[in-house]
Structures are given as C-alpha cells and as structure tokens.
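Minutes, project check-in

Agenda point 3 was the complex the collaborators sent over. CS summarized: two entities, 566 residues total, and the question is how they sit relative to each other. Sequences were read into the notes so everyone works from the same version.
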Amino acid sequence: MTPDSSVSVSASEGADTADTGDEGARVKSRVPVVEGMHTTEGEPHLIGAKLSGRQTYFFPKHLAGGDPAVNGPQDLEEVLLSRRGKVWSYTTSNYQPPPPFVAATDPYEPITIAAVELEKEQMVILGQCVAGVTPDDLSVGTEVELVIDTLYEDDEHEYMVWKWRPVEVQA
Amino acid sequence: MEEIAILGVGMHPWGKWGRNFVEYGTAAANEALRDAGVDWNDVGFVSGAITVRCGYPGYVAGSTFARALGFNGAQVASSYAACASGATALSVARGQILSGATDVALVVGADTTPKGFLAPNEGDRPDDMDWLRFKLVGATNPVYFGLQARRRMDLYGATSEDFVRVKVKNSRHSVHNPRARFTKEYDIDDVANSPVVSDPLRLLDICATSDGGAAMVVSSMDYARAHGVSDPVRVAGISTVTPTFPDTVIDLPYLATDSAGETAPPDRGFKASIGDRVYAEAGLGPSDVDVAEVYDLSSALELDWYEQLGFCEVGEAEKLLRDGVTTIGGRLPVNPSGGLGAFGEAVPAQAIAQVCELTWQLRGQAQARQVEGARVGITANQGLFGHGSSVLVRR
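CS then shared the predicted structure for the full assembly.
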C-alpha cells in the first residue's frame, strides 16, 4: 500500500501492480468506483448519453438531463465520449474532501482538478488530473486526454475512475 | 409586477453557536414582528426556508417556526432551493399576498451547520449528483469556486490581489455590522498569506459555514397603508429562474455542463439571466441600483456578479473594484453588510438576510455602514442544482 501504487497511469499496464512475488499474495482486481461511468477495458472513454437524431450529449448517462427543444420524452442512446479535450479551467483541493471521498494517500496530498471542454460534444467535464500534475502544468486551452486510473485502493481492489492527463506532459 | 411591502425585518447574529436552529429563526421572527409592529396573531401565512442539516424539523421549517411562535391557524409552506431557499420562500409569500389569500406573511429561515466542508447525504448514493462529485472527483464547493476564479484570471487578467481586495473591502464594511460573525478588518497581507484551499483561492477568499437566522414580515400595499405605513421599502421584483438549456458553464453540483452540440448557448448565461428577470419585473435597470448584496461564496465570485448584474461590462469588474466604486462611499457599494465573507453561509437564512440588509439601507438605518441616499437595492444569489435568486427592493 505504498503511495506510489496510486500513480500508475495506464490501466493497460496489466494487473500485476500488487504482485509482491509472495506465493500467498493476491493480485488486486480493478473495479470501477461506480459502474457505468467509463469503459473498463480497451480504449479509455467516458460513457455518456446522446439524444437520438441530435448532437446533444449528457454525462453521466444515468443522470442525463433533457433538451427543451425535444418537448417530450428524451430518447437517449449510449455513446462513448471523446477522450481528448482542452482545459476550460483548473484548480486544486489542498484539503482532504469529506466522505464519500476516499483519499489515495495517507497523509492526504493535494489533488489537481480540471474542467475539460470536448470539442465534438461542446460540453465541459470535470475530473481529477493524474498524480504529479499541478496548476503550473496547465492553462486554459491545454490539451489533455482521458485515462482510467486508480482513485484509491484497499486490500482486495483498486478502485478505478477517469482522470485527465496533459498530452505533452507524460507522467 | 405588483409590489408588496416589507413591514419588518430581523436577524439572529451569525456565529458558530451550536444551538437548535429553531432558536435562531424564532428570534429573527420575533424581531421582524416587533420591527413591523404586527401582532403574530394577524399573520395569515408562514413561509419557511428549509434546512436539510437539522432533520425533520428542518424539512418542515415553516411549521416548525409557526409552532415555536404558537400555532395561530395561519397557512404554511416550506421551500427548499439550496442557497436560494430564502428568495423562494419570499416568492411563495408574495404569491399568497398578491392572490389575495393573505394580507400579511412571515418569511423565515435559519440553520445550524456542521464544521468544515458542506458534504452530501450519507450512504452509497450513485444516483445523486451531489454524492458523485465528492466520491469520484473530490469536487468540494471551493473546487467550483476555484475553477471560476482561475477562468477569470486566464480570460480577463484578474490577479490574486484583485480577489484579496474584495475580501479587504468587505472586511472593512463588516467592522460596522454587529450581526456579522467575522468583524475583523483584514489587510492585504492577512489574506494573501492565508493558506491556499483551492488554487488560486485562499482560506480568507472563501466563506465559512455558520449558524444564523433571518426573517421578514411582508404585506400587501393596502395592508401597509391601513397599518399606517405610507412609504415602506417595497419588493419590486423576485427572480427564481432556472438555467436555459444549454448552460455551458460548469457549476455545482454537476460533473458536466450541458452540451451545445445542437443548440447554441443563449446570449445571456444563467447568472446574467437571474438579474435580467428581476430588472424586468421591477421595470428598472442596473443604472438605477444604489446598493447591492451579492453572494460572495468566494471573493472572486463577487467580481463575476458585478458583470452579471450589469454594473459593468464583462472583464471590467476589477477596474470597478480598484476604483472604489463598490466600497461604501463609492457610487455603487456592494456588500455593505460585509457579505458572506463576514457572515458565512447559513444556507436557508442567507437570501433573506440580504434583503434585511437592503431594507435597513433603504430606511437609512444602517448606521456606520449606511449607503447615503440609497433608494434601490438588488440582491443576487444562487442555489446549487440550478436555482437563481435575486430580489429588487425600492423605496
């Protein structure tokens, strides 16, 4: 349970991060913190909703709003959202957020959070940045991509969530 | 829009008292009734602003306060719109009065808040956006304030020092407000040296959470005249608007904005639309305003309101601040009460407290923080999940 285990950036690196070589050690399984928010294998994408016949998107899918122009039942289909976007704004949480947030490290280390604009969907989506990214690495317009990363872990699982990673600053 | 009269206002001082919220609301209500010279038994409608942090009595706030004052057979309603709850409660009371269902109403809200960050309800709640933002991102309220502040810096060249100046100005105002929780006058170094909470915002840029209570007695204009009040402060407009789709500015408690992929965003964004509505109801505009109480959840957000309420063009708020326009003694003082920075949020009381302050200002009763000759005042406020809130008062 070293703090470093939370900075593994790519979910495609394999499931051996917790393998200590000890015969009895169990390999931690990776599970999403909340089901249905993002892909769990293959290319990382957020799972959104799209109005049938319209270029109107929502995230998350299960809490989609509506478009008043539809003026009736909102006919939604599942869609994978673009995995690249540009930073709309960014900030940090220097103090540990209250539950249900679970800190990745003890003691808590500040996290950087970005709001990212997706060009095709014309919407802005919040997310943590991968560990190591600070406000100094970002400005409005910085290009970032989505990764699936560990939010926190316990003895049995790594709990996965989406995060933003600057395209040019590889962690 | 037909007007109603504000006959009386009252507030329990803001603090971290740790007592039952009912005590604060009842104290504020009794002060408002005394101020109005209205007998509690003449009140025909009680409009409570709900608190969700004090259990069942908070959910039925209107009834809770009515019982504490002694059930008098009045009709009752309780409203929740997060930080905008007080404006919603006032709006419900206005509807009752203008429909003729009642002549005089009591509007009251109070809260007892826990220490630290406001947090979502407990349990595993993936269908609750307010839970998801904490669970998946760690997006506390200050995170959203930080995003807005950083955007202001990158787009309009605002600096951390501009934000600090807002706090310094409001702390100077608060020194003269006995109902405020924080009445210390801060200088630039105090604020600039406080720890960063959500970059670029520091501890003293961000409002605390407080206990407090506020109340108003409002009536029809006919009732006010019959009561011997010929020139009351009047409510000339109330805005409780929701956003217009697509709202493309990220805001509490959402993880994403609306999508503008099909429909272009409206010319006037959500926050601007809050003021537009209240000006339209009152038949007045930004140039008529003498004094404003705006929701400075963070110092940077106060600057946004200058523009959204039409006090200046977009990107010019820092100039208005630096020129002293929004300081008491300037042309358009903002937050003469000291604002949220001096009070801290007592959620259901806050929008009512803003109107209480403007009422004292328009009556010329604000003592050392008086805005000379104020005749028109506006409040602005916003509750999460898309609740606009603004009240325009005039004399």
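Noted in discussion: The longest helix of chain B spans residues 347-363.
Follow-up: revisit at the next meeting once the mutant set is ready.
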